[in-house]
Amino acid sequence: MDLVHSSFLVSIFAKLSCPQYPIVGQTINLLTVPPAFGWSTLDSILFQFPLGGIVLVFILLTGFLSSRIPNIIIIQLILCALPVIAGCAIIWKSTWSYHAAAPVVGYTIIGFFGPVVSLIIIVGMANVAGATKKSLMAANIFVAYCVGNIVGPQLIKSNTRTQHYPELWLGLIIW
Predict the structure, then answer these.
(1) Which of 48, 175, 61 is nearest to 118 (CA)?
(2) Which of 24, 44, 66, 117 is 20 to 30 A removed from 127 (C-alpha atoms)?
């Protein structure tokens, strides 16, 4: 397979990974989610510290491991995507009640989106040659990121709140 075809496949992979990106918008909404379950604004802010810690530690860890162990990037990408899927499933299937802890735990482990995004960028940049192709790849990843953040909120339909917004979580879990 020549370089043009491989860069095209990586571009398709990045665009298909686009549903991972609404998670960025979801974590920003973490300040609004805990109050819906009876948590205070201060609690909502404090709940972001573990998520930020996961993002910080695992982005650094995946970067370090990628620089030391050859051919581990795709394995890391899969291993970091699994907690994101689990977090979505926990939020979706948990009981949404006063001071519900499970949705907050789900949002916390969604913090693994950070390494997923970083690893997608690494895979995109590593598999193309030339400045123009690298710029195009970075633009494709950025467009996928933006499209995901635009589409993600559209999947929340207020009339499905009692079912915990199945369209949103199914879209995130399936992709």
Answers:
(1) 61
(2) 24
